[in-house]
Amino acid sequence: MQSIQKFNQHLEIFSFHSSQEFKSFLDPLINVYISGYKGLEEYAYTDRRDVKRYLKWLYNKDPQAFFIAILKTKVVGFVAGCRYWHDRIYGEIGELHELVVDKPVQEQGIGRALQQIILSFLFTYHKLIGLWAGEKNKKAIKFYQDSGFKIVGQVGKWLRMIKEK
């Protein structure tokens, strides 16, 4: 793994060197995903096999846009994006697909650190970044709005949010 940024003496953000390295972290990533979505299962995969498939899809879509947070020695969060996503309204943009932090360590700046890394990365390629957030996920909506994302539409239970550079 390559250390991308050290936020303090205990929190570091990493990227993977290879798909083999990524695969070796699947179990802790699955655990973080399931923990992070506790209480929001209507927006998440709940079966471990489905979560594993989804994580592989996220990684394979753009391996360079997948980052993990390690607190001391434990995986506590991850973020996955895509540099070249086609949006039917905006055309080619950067997309933030997923940002999850382990429930016990939420609200300690880990999500903000992961977001900072992915936004910086995606903004080197595009002036617009999009994401989808569950309409009842008030915590995530506020988190993204506080970072400058604006709600620009809705499809079913999903809100479309866009941030300009």
Order of helices and strands: EEHHHEEEHEHEE
- The tally of helices reads 5
Structural class by helix and strand composition = alpha+beta
Q: Domains counted in the coordinates: how many?
A: 1
CATH architecture: 3-Layer(aba) Sandwich
Task: Return Rg in Å.
Answer: 15 Å
Helix content: 25-40%
* End-to-end distance: 29 Å
Could you give me the name of the CATH homologous superfamily?
A: Gcn5-related N-acetyltransferase (GNAT)
Estimate the global geometry from the Cα principal axes. globular
Largest sheet: 8 strands, mixed
CATH class: Alpha Beta
Task: Report on the architecture of this protein.
The protein is of the alpha+beta class. It has a single domain, classed as Gcn5-related N-acetyltransferase (GNAT) (Aminopeptidase, 3-Layer(aba) Sandwich), CATH 3.40.630.30. It has five helices and eight strands; from the N terminus they run ββαααβββαβαββ. It has helices spanning 19-24, 26-36, 48-61, 110-123, 138-146; strands spanning 2-6, 11-15, 66-71, 74-87, 91-101, 128-134, 150-155, 158-164. Strands 1-2-3-4-5-6-8-7 form an eight-stranded mixed β-sheet, sandwiched between helices. Helix 2 (26-36) packs across helix 3 (48-61). The model has no long low-confidence stretch (mean pLDDT 95).
Can you summarize this structure?
The chain has 165 residues and is α+β, with helices and mostly antiparallel strands.
List keywords for this structure.
single chain; 165 residues; alpha+beta; Aminopeptidase; 5 helices
Can you lay out the helices and strands and say which pair or pack?
Elements: E1 2-6, E2 11-15, H1 19-24, H2 26-36, H3 48-61, E3 66-71, E4 74-87, E5 91-101, H4 110-123, E6 128-134, H5 138-146, E7 150-155, E8 158-164
Parallel strand pairs: 5-6
Antiparallel strand pairs: 1-2, 2-3, 3-4, 4-5, 6-8, 7-8
Helix pairs in contact: 2-3
